[in-house]
Amino acid sequence: MAKENIKLLSLWSCPYCWRVKVALAEKDIDYEEILEHELMNGKSELLLESNPVHKQVPVLLHNDKPISESTNIVTYIDEVWLAKSFFPTCEYEKSQARFWGDYIDRKVYPAGRAVWSSKEDEVEAATKEFLDILMHLDATLGDKDYFNGDTFGFVDILLIALTSWFPAYEKYGGFKLADHYPKLAAWITRSWARKTVSESLANPEMIMNFCVRIRKLYGLE
Predict the structure, then answer these.
(1) What is the pTM assigned to this prediction?
(2) Secondary structure (H, E, C), the chain
(3) Whole-number Å distance between alpha carbons of 134 and 119
(4) Do residues 211 and 164 touch, judged by C-beta distance below 8 A?
(5) Quick one: residue 85, left, alpha or beta (phi over 0 = left, psi -120 to 50 = alpha)?
(6) 86 occurs within a structural domain
């Protein structure tokens, strides 16, 4: 069988790219990462050709065929490489995983971005919204080790990739996640202990420094 050609068009600061990296690592799939420069400085021809609709990372190139959008890519990886499924076997539980995956996609990162990028008089409202969003995820996790129970899976992958940004949210929002949702905070620690996670996500300190630079650029510091 010919060796598969797998490439990931990525950006160092993009949590949606980290999702794909975690998924590939969980499946033990070798790939080549092709880093875009900061997208405000222009996008590569390969990216524009591979994702002409949205023109954004991540894009997975599997034998030169492009797959776009992080949740779609994670699902594709799970369906193509069958070992160690990201989803529960029960169809109902699968539907719940898809529901919470969609919730995370719609809610978490946009709300978190509002926390660190807001003006001083807007931070309190943005922080409240962010914590209200996490309330539902904390309740869904409950006392389980992972959202899928004992197994690190689909919902875990989608959410954990966003958590490199959480220390920046805490800094600018003036809160500690563990004070509000200790179970969710423990899940983050547990998930980061996985090599597939720690080696795939950006260092939170680098993200913090990135936020400082952006805030200064837009006159927020």
Answers:
(1) 0.95
(2) CCCCCEEEEECCCCHHHHHHHHHHHHCCCCCEEEECCCHHHCCCHHHHHHCCCCCCCCEEEECCEEEECHHHHHHHHHHHCCCCCCCCCCHHHHHHHHHHHHHHHHHHHHHHHHHHHCCHHHHHHHHHHHHHHHHHHHHHHCCCCECCECCCCHHHHHHHCCHHHHHHHHHHHCCCHHHHCHHHHHHHHHHHCCHHHHCCCCCHHHHHHHHHHHHHHCCCC
(3) 22
(4) no
(5) beta
(6) no
- Quick one: pLDDT band at residue 220, thresholds 50, 70, 90? confident
Residue-range definition of the domain harbouring residue 41: 6-80
Which of 54, 80, 106 is at the close of a domain? 80
Assign residue 46 the CATH number of its domain: 3.40.30.10
pLDDT (tens digit per residue) in 171-213 = 999 999 999 999 999 999 999 999 999 999 999 999 999 999 9
How many whole angstroms separate alpha carbon 152 and alpha carbon 135?
Answer: 20
> How far apart, in whole angstroms, are the C-alpha atoms of residue 31 and residue 170?
33
Same-domain check for residues 13 and 56: yes
Alpha-carbon span 109 to 95, nearest angstrom = 22
User: Could you tell me the CATH number of the domain that includes residue 137?
Assistant: 1.20.1050.10
38, part of any domain: yes
1 inside domain = no
